[in-house]
Write the structure tokens for this entry.
Amino acid sequence: MLLEQNKAFDQIKIIDFGTSLVYDPAKKLDEKLGTPYYIAPEVLNKKYGAKCDIWSIGVITYILLCGSPPFSGQTDNDIMKAVRAGKVNYEGKGFSAVAIDFMQALFTYDQEQRPSAETCLQHKWISELA
């Protein structure tokens, strides 16, 4: 995490340069890279684009709101099986209905149907409640 110098606390940035590259939207990425808890299902299938990061933001949101990951298991393989299944349990976690709606959008399994970052920023949970 980074904080910009001379900025308010709300200027926090989450980064991971370990697998960074210059993104070409005309190409699908095909390397299986990432941390099992945060990885999107299409990354496991080695055919993904920028919207894999939207999925990861969903994971971060879920963890920040309830303190546990949406996909878990005893081993990395178990976690990745849970990610491939794509089933998220929202019950008993104390999430508001609008927060669930936001996360469900981020966890849209089909990456082509998953919202863009710009669309996510327009969601009621962000635009009206943040």
About this structure: The first helix runs from residue 41 to 44. DSSP finds six helices and two strands in the chain. The chain has one domain: 30-127. The two ends are 20 Å apart (CA to CA).
